[in-house]
Amino acid sequence: MSDLHSAGSQQSRALLLLRDLILKGSFAPGERLAEIPLAERLNTSRTPIRLALTALEHEGLVEPLESGGYRMRGFTTQETTDSIRMRGLLEGYAARHLAENGINKRLEQQLRACLVEADAAVFKVEMSMDDYATYAEVNTHFHDLILKNCNNRIIQRQMESLLSHPFTAPSAMLPMQSSIEEGPRWMQHAHLQHHALVHAIVHGQSSRAQALGEEHVEVACLNLEYAEKNPEIAQQVLPALRIMYSE
Predict the structure, then answer these.
(1) Residue-range definition of the domain harbouring residue 170
(2) Which residue, of 72, 88, 105, is where some domain finishes?
């Protein structure tokens, strides 16, 4: 494994672990998040923590402090659900554009490479932390490929703005192995939708591609709904998404 890939994997693991801690309500709204304590807590160096915090800022989960470092943001469940579903509308429309206009062989190969790599990570009885990190990276790349190649700047600009909302990014709501026992099964379902989406785009099935793009985000919404309807599970899984985090 190259040093570059190893560094990327460390950042991905740090990002997943920090998201998981946030989902479990480990940090109070407004709480300061400093690199050194977080690095010690996650048994890693400061660099992956710094990069992960930057990513979390882009996702709207943390905000920078004038004195340096970051602090937790506040948000509501409804805000998150609305943002996720809006992402689905935009991604569905982007997929429709690709299906209508056709894709070149290079893009098709890139999308199919994502499918193959993610297949190896999610189709297991039990996923390791490295599997989650791999899937998160591939999942983000897959969605980026569709968005960046749809040739619609309006969709792209709207998505850039939308992804600054909490838990709206494609990989932000991946269920962690330590959080939801059925996490791998949910992720397998979501990834099979990736397969169907690629098939629809490649074969010019524009309406189906759009519908799949919109339906795909419902897995993330189901995670929220599951936590809301099972408060005893929510204590372990998604307490950060309850009203306690409203501003």
Answers:
(1) 77-241
(2) 72
